[in-house]
Each structure stands twice: as C-alpha cells, then as structure tokens.
Design a protein that fits this description.
Two copies of one chain form a homodimer.
Chain A lengths: L6 E5 L5 H10 L4 E6 L11 H17 L4 E4 L2 H14 L4 E2 L2 H11 L4 E6 L1 H6 L1 H9 L6 E6 L3 H7 L5 H16 L4 E4 L8 H7 L4 E4 H15 L15 E6 L6 H9 L7 E2 L3
Parallel strand pairs in A: 1-2, 1-3, 2-9, 3-4, 5-6, 5-7, 7-8, 9-10
C-alpha cells in the first residue's frame, strides 16, 4: 500500500456514488475505484449470508486492484458484512452505519433522532443498534420510517417535483410530530433529496453518512501516512475507475445526477 | 505539542464561531480555544499593518495557551496576516481564503465563480487573487459582490425573514445573471444564510470556508500524528474555552445562533 494507491468503494448499485461524491469533495486528490454490483442490486431483500458473500467478492476485487482502503457504500452491506470484510483483509474498512450513528449522537440536543431508509434497512434495525451501542443516553428516542418511494424518485430525477414533495410530506409527517432534531439519511440515494427534506423539516440536522465516512477516511489515512499528496492542479478531473456488473441503460444519466460530472463508460466485470 | 493540546481559533469577533462549528462537526474530540477580538472588531477597514499586529497578538495568546494549530477564522486577517503568523510560529496555520478558493476551483464546471463578502473583503480582491493563483483556467470568470447588510441581518437573527429574502435577492441578482455555478461565502457570518441563499440561487454550489478549513486541519494534524483520540462518549459537550476582548450584550444570543449550543461565559482578556 502506498500513498497513491486507490481507495476502493463498493455498493450494490449506483447509490454509492453519493458517497463517492463526498469523498471527492473532501479528498479529491485520491485515486478511486468504484464498483457497483448493478447486476445483483438490490441487496436489501437478500439473506445475510448472501450479502456477506457478495461483499467479500467486491472487496476482493478492489483489493486485487491495489486498494489501500475499502469503503462499503451500501447500507445493507455495511450493516451485515462490515465485520466479515474487516476480518478478511488487512486494509482499513469503513461502512456507512457507524459514522452516521456517531454523528447523529453528537448532533442531537433533544435526544429525538429519526432514521429514514429502505424497508430492508429500517427492518434490520442496524442504525438503532449502532445508536444504542454508542449512546450513553438512556433517554434516547429513536424513530424510524421506511420511505420506499424515495429511491425510484431519485432515479427518475424528480428531486423537486410537486409529487415528490407530497410523498416526502407523507413520509416525514410522523417524524415531525415526534419533534426529532436530527435525521439520519439511511440510504445512499437520499442525500439527493436533502433540499426537499430540509424544506419539510426545517431546522432538523440531516446526517449524510457519506460525508461522515469521508471525514473518517481522512483521519484513518492521515494517521497511517497513506493520504495522497495534495496538488495545486485545477481544471480538475476526478480520477475514478468505474466498474459495474451490468450497465443499465440509465447509468449515465443517474451517475451524472449523483456526481455532477460526466463519467467515463464503466468497465463491465463479473464477480 | 501533543495530541490533546488544543486547537486555537481566532477571529476579529464572533463570526469565527461558524468556523468553530465546522471543526466541532468533523473533529469534535479536540479541545478548542476560541479568541474573539470583540473590542477591536471589525478588522475590515483597518490597515494591513494593524491587522497583522492584532493577528500576531491573538496567535501569540493561543500559542501561550498551548495551541497545536492556529486557525485564522477571519477573512480579513486571513488575507493580510496568514504569512506573518506562519513565519512567527512553529505550529501549522490555516486561514479561510485558500481552502475555499481551492474548493471552488474543484467544484465549478462552467468556470463562473461568484464571491460574496463584506465591502472590505471584496475590495481586497483576496479571493480573486487566490483563485487566479491556484487556477490554470485562463477562461475563469470571477464575479464578486459586497453584501454589507448580511452581517447585521445575521446578528439580528433574521435568517429567513421576508426582508432578508428581498435583500438577498437584490444582492444576488447580478451573480445569478452571470450564471455562476459556484459561490464562495466569503464572510464567516454568511453560512448562517445558506438556506436563504440556496433558495435564491438553486443548484449553485455554496462554498463554506470553515468546512474546508476543518477538512484541511484533519489532514494536517493526522499526518503530523497530532489528532486527539476519538472517544466513544456521547451526551456530548464540546470542549471549548472562549476568550474575548469585550463581552457585547448580545454575545450569548449570537453565539447560540452560530453554534447551536449554549456557551459558557467567555473570559475577558486584554491583548
């Protein structure tokens, strides 16, 4: 592993690009390899055993490409497979759940924390468990709500459509009544709806897992002496190699929406 | 200098608390000393010589308190006194201008960058110079606009008042016509107006200097092995000692608005 080895990011699909975006925002000079297991997305309804197997395959692919760090940019894989990936490989591994839970606990004043995610993530209770594990607040109140329409809305690109507003109002009404002051965006697609959500729950702190994962990465790589050098070089093109297990027809549109720049054609691979 | 030495942050007044807030968001386990030179605020209209002298006094105070890093959380002092403070002391020094300029250059796609700040900051051309220095874009278009009413609006707490909206629309109209895609919030008070500004220039990337300064700090301290240890400790109270050269009657209200928590009574000192 060297300073200019790449950071490997994997996800069940393309949602993890919102995580990559946060990494590019804060440590842009790194090389990245992004692997989306688009042929087998979503992971949410698969058994833990299968998700662990798929995650180990993805991590192995990134390690073979020389990754100095693995980022599990998928909530389901993070909740189920983090330990397995950590145990299997020698590089630092960062998931989505713990950085977001810790950030939420630091942020809340009134101890009412909301979690939104896919049905599978909410049912898994992964964030609830992490919040309880790291919390010393016996008075912590956790309210979670599955928002199944948010992923298709984001993929359709209707980020501020009136229909999206109505849907978000419906989903968030319950959490609003509970007077949450902090809301974990527990799905990689949801950061694209930040503005929509903020308009409905003004003043609530929105916790973006990818942002806090990126900050953890700087700390871990910095302390290990493994950060890439900063460069005074602009007209800046991020250095990302994209790999997918299938190229959906909507890939480029959606990737552009997540990243704000045009991506190269991804390489299709089999795991 | 040790891992648990404090990070020293100074500003001409209380605006730098928005910078401190970003540091607390990303590296909450550090100890902080905040010094606001509230008796001599604002620095904007003072000569470079005087601002350098004041900045060296503030930095000296923080160094004597054991600071392992100095953050100049004031745009005027950053543009005028960064080199002088760097030359005088052995610890890493971070200002506001360079991290924001670099972030803006990485962020823009259409090469139209806006800058808003106080009259003094805009007239100094500090951001323009930094953008040109770090840019290789001969095609870079920089548009700056002084927004003198934004500081008093923030201090009055009218963050979403209809009057504030009208004022912001007036100030931002010109930049909007220039089709900027990136806007540097070149004054420490302005991050509190993020929502107001975002509503007027939707889709424009707002660059918060404090956020990028905090990320620089993690990198620098991490590589020097000087980050405080992370702790699994919540019910979290930030560890900040506040010093001011004068205690204005509105100090507590304004500090609460900037930080989202109640601050202890600051210690009044003379520089």
């Amino acid at each position: 592993m060297e300073n200019n080895s790449p950071i490997g990011v994997f996800d069940s699909g393309i949602g993890g690009l919102s995580v990559l975006k946060q990494f590019l925002r804060f440590i842009p000079y790194e090389k990245y390899i992004y692997l989306g297991d688009t042929a087998r997305v979503p992971y949410g309804n698969k058994s833990a055993e299968t998700v662990i197997e798929y995650s180990l395959q993805s991590a192995r692919f990134l390690i073979d490409k020389g990754a100095k760090m693995i980022v599990i940019a998928c909530n389901t894989a993070s909740s189920v497979a983090l330990e397995a990936v950590k145990n299997e490989f020698d590089v630092p591994v960062i998931g989505m759940i713990i950085p977001a839970a810790q950030a939420a606990l630091r942020t809340t004043s009134n101890h009412n924390i909301g979690i939104i995610g896919t049905r599978a993530t909410v049912a898994s209770g992964a964030y609830d468990k992490a919040l309880m594990l790291y919390s010393e607040l016996s008075s912590l109140n956790i309210y979670s709500k599955a928002c199944p329409l948010f992923v298709p809305i984001v993929e359709e690109g209707w980020l501020e459509h009136d229909a999206s507003k109505l849907i978000a109002e419906e989903y968030l009404q319950e959490l609003k009544e509970k007077e949450i002051d902090t809301l974990i965006l527990g799905c990689t697609h949801y950061p694209l709806l930040k503005k929509l959500i903020a308009d409905i729950v003004p003043g609530v702190n929105l916790i973006d897992s990818g942002e806090h994962a990126a900050v953890s990465a700087i700390r871990i790589l910095g302390e290990a002496g493994l950060l890439a050098k900063e460069r005074d070089e602009f007209n800046f093109t991020p250095d990302v190699d994209f790999y997918v297990t299938d190229v959906p027809s909507t890939f480029f549109d959606i990737a552009r929406r997540f990243l704000d720049f045009d991506v190269n054609t991804p390489k299709r691979i089999s795991l």
